[in-house]
Amino acid sequence: IRDKLSETHAAINRIRALRAQAEAWEKRAPELAEDAAALAKKLAEVEDALIQAKSDDPRSFPARLNVKLGTLINFADNADHAPTQQLLAIYDDIAARIDTQIVRMGEIVSGPIAGFNARVAGLGTGAIS
To answer: Among 11, 15, 34, 56, which residue carries the largest CB count within 10 Å?
Structure first.
């Protein structure tokens, strides 16, 4: 659980860095603003599935995958016995949903971001890394 949570948080950090770069391009180059905004939106959708970015108060908005996974640590750690089949099944479900979002992020990087970077290369400046 800890390793999957660390992987999730690493993906969130990468998404935020990529989105910040896309948003910077949106402001920097008017001819690329529409494409940059579309990239930022796609990345925000993946981020929103992984973490609740709208509020610091988890009671205000529904929990996202990172919180659900983090909660499982408490159940597993505080139990007197080995994890139950139900806990393992919930972990498998959450881990699969996280993996789906990480794959989506990879597809965005290899598809739309790669295409955006090709357009930026024509301007003779750095792209989204």
So the answer is: 15
Whole-model pTM: value is 0.86
- The terminus-to-terminus CA distance of the chain in angstroms comes to 29
**Rounded Cα gap, residues 45 and 104, in angstroms:** 10
Structure tokens at 120: 């930026």
Tokens encoding 21: 């770069």
Q: How is residue 54 annotated by DSSP?
A: S
CB-based contacts of 75: which residues, under 8 Å, 6+ apart? 83, 87
CA 17 – CA 4 distance, rounded (Å): 20
Please identify which residue in the block is written with the tokens 């948080």: 9
C-alpha R_g of the chain:
18
Look up residue 84 and give its amino acid.
T
Structure tokens at 17: 């860095």
Q: How confident is the model at residue 58 (pLDDT cuts 50, 70, 90)?
A: low
